[in-house]
Amino acid sequence: xxxxxxxxxxxxxxGYVAAIRAAQxxxxxxxxxxxxxxxxxxxxVGCIPSKAMLESSELYAEARDGMxxxxxxxxxxxLDLKRMLARKEKVVKTSTSGVDYLFKKNKITRYLGHAxxxxxxxxxxxxxxENTEIQAKQIIIxxxxxxxxxxGVELDGDRIASSTEALSYDEVPAHLVVIGAGYIGxxxxxxxxRLGAQVTVLEYLDRILPGMDAGMAKEAYKIFKKQGMDFxxxxxxxxxxxxxNRAFVDREDADSIECDRVLVAVGRKPNTDNLGLDTIGIxxxxxxxxxxxxxxxxxxxxxxxxxxxxxxxxxxxKAEHEGVACAEQIVTxxxxxxxxxxxxxxYTHPEVASVGRTEEELNDAGIEYRKGVYPFRAxxxxxxxxxxxxxxxxxxxxxxxxxxGVHIIGPRAGDLxxxxxxxxxxxxxxxxxxxxxxxxxxxxxxxxEAALDVAGRAINI
Length: 461
Ligand code: NAI
Description:
By secondary structure, the chain is an alpha/beta fold. The protein has 3 domains: about 1-145 and about 270-335, 3-Layer(bba) Sandwich (FAD/NAD(P)-binding domain); about 160-265, FAD/NAD(P)-binding domain (3-Layer(bba) Sandwich); about 340-455, FAD/NAD-linked reductase, C-terminal dimerisation domain (Enolase-like, domain 1, 2-Layer Sandwich), CATH 3.30.390.30. About 35% of the residues lie in helices and about 25% in strands. The chain contains 14 helices and 22 strands. It has helices at about 15-25, 40-45, 45-65, 80-105, 165, 185-195, 215-225, 275-280, 315-330, 360-365, 380-385, 415-425, 430-435, 445-455; strands spanning about 1-10, 30-35, 110, 115-120, 120-125, 130-140, 145, 160, 175-180, 200, 230, 235-245, 245-250, 255-260, 260-265, 270, 305, 345, 350-355, 370-375, 390-395, 405-410. The strands form 5 sheets. Strands 1, 2, 3, 4, 5, 6 and 17 form a 7-stranded mixed sheet that branches. Helix 1 packs parallel to helix 9 (about 315-330) and helix 3 (about 45-65) runs antiparallel to helix 4 (about 80-105). The radius of gyration is 23 Å and the shape is globular.
């Protein structure tokens, strides 16, 4: 039997980061991963390949529709989808082999196969060349999440499929129906819309991007509609089926829609398949997530869990943060995540980004706040870029001026939100942001102006 101080199950952003941090702190660390490539959903079939496709498709759309405003005139702009997909694969390969390198650098032992608990300190690894048993003093479960499905909608892995397949369609669908107007639906919908598909997004709720600030989601909705994305809000999907090479989506109170492909993007659920959690008595909550305390400890001593498999937003950087905090907790007794300062970003064009509380959350909690807003059309750099859609909204406590939430739609909103996350982490006031010098001309000046507007004294508007 192999023995280690710490065993991490799963090499996604939660697991691989926890393994590295624990190794930095002096533990003998091992990690079991069933896929050959390290990095989990995020690196293999999630964040990284989708951003590669978003980048490529955005360049294509810009070359086709956007460059002429800069006086750049092309002939016919062509699309070589095969090459675009090959580039995406290369980006993924570089990222996943980067984790291999990091494991070697930090002397982390890697096991290939599926881990299953035998007891609270032993797991068996199967499915690799040879079955192995591993004993560890501490174990972190970081098995992530898997695609959630809908009753009546069976994924056939081709015409009706998840984001994994939508990253690799071998031709541009003439008509793509997306079920779910969340992160995945809007990002992957944007990719294929830009590449020439008709895209219809069916959303059960009467709004897009649930969980994001409602006012900002409304603005995002208008922008995506203007780009040509069709939405049917308040649309309950009851089934989907394939006939020949056509797919049909059935809805309550509306006609079926015929299309070429269906992307199911109605959320993800924790992945605890065949882990043997019941063998050791690990408790799950009513949504199938592993229950943990504030220190990531499960109901079984010396077994911890981080990332998508526990409560909270299913975001790679949230999992990473938890991985670090959990490893530090195990070794030093200290480790903490400030969930108020974890940003969320939708990588559409323009991007939608947010950190802290929304207006609805503040109203529900009865917290009085002041609001500062600044549109990108008033920002010099945005005008030079030719990207005028969107705005920055800052919510600050009415009495203390402490920043409670920042919401941005606009060019590079995903990068701009970092400043807001740091401000919230440091307990900054809107005035702190407003009095910090921001280089001119930059998009970040829109954040500063919104901070000034909290006190009604924005300059450039
Ligand atoms: P999501 O939770 O973001 O959105 C799912 C959407 O589907 C919701 O708007 C929901 O109301 C809708 N829906 C649910 N049932 C429906 C039905 N029967 N008919 C029509 N609509 C229905 O989930 P999504 O987009 O699948 O993403 C999964 C996870 O992956 C999320 O937790 C997200 O945080 C994460 N992710 C993060 C990304 C990022 O950070 N940029 C990118 C992609 C995914």
